[in-house]
Write a structure and sequence with these properties.
The chain is globular, with a radius of gyration of 17 Å. The protein folds into two domains: 74 residues, Arc Repressor Mutant, subunit A, CATH 1.10.10.970; 81 residues, ADP-ribosylation fold (Alpha-Beta Barrel). Strand 2 and strand 3 form a beta hairpin. The chain has six helices and eleven strands.
């Protein structure tokens, strides 16, 4: 499969497994799972056919490991705007985590911290390189350092997705180091 096709399928999956499953008649269970066969049928019925081999390739080759297939079901690892419970346990984070953003939003972050916006959680990275890639999607990246260990000791709950994205409902400004 060429890269262009892989990206198209990945974006299609993101849209329908994270944000608009109902648009193609897909039903996610409470934990965000849906049968693989249902996804393939729904996509074909709505003019975007792909087969199981293509789907498996996208899931395995996706550099961000955004999707998981297990026991004939598929789900997005995180980033949902629809209501799901990923059923991820609370875990102790490393002392520092990172968040990539852009300069125009820094004043808002300084005032209110990192907000989940339309998603279920704020997404944090374990390393500067990943945060830089994430921040680059919206322009020249600015990397914020989050004092995750201190947050955790203050009672904030962290979870980590299957693809190693750290998730927290909110990061108050007092736990953020600005450049």
């Amino acid at each position: 499969m060429d890269d262009k096709r892989m990206v198209r399928i990945s974006k299609y999956l993101a849209k329908h497994l994270r944000h608009e499953p109902e648009r193609i008649g897909l039903v996610l269970d409470e934990n965000g799972w849906t049968p693989v066969d249902d996804l393939i049928r729904a996509a074909a019925a709505h003019g975007f056919p792909f087969d199981r081999a293509e789907l498996d390739h996208v899931v395995e080759a996706n550099d961000k490991k955004r999707y998981v297939i297990d026991d004939g079901r598929i789900r997005a690892s995180q980033g949902h705007s629809v209501e799901v419970d990923l059923d991820l346990p609370v875990v102790e984070p490393p002392e520092l985590l990172y968040h990539g953003t852009v300069a125009p939003v820094l004043d808002v972050i300084r005032a209110g911290g990192l907000q989940r916006m339309a998603r279920h959680h704020v997404h944090l990275s374990a390393d500067v390189e990943t945060a830089t890639r994430v921040g680059s999607r919206r322009g020249r990246p600015v990397i914020l350092t989050v004092e995750a260990g201190s947050m955790h000791r203050d009672g904030h709950e962290f979870r980590v997705s299957a693809n190693r994205v750290w998730l927290v409902p909110h990061v108050p400004p007092g736990f953020i180091r600005f450049p």
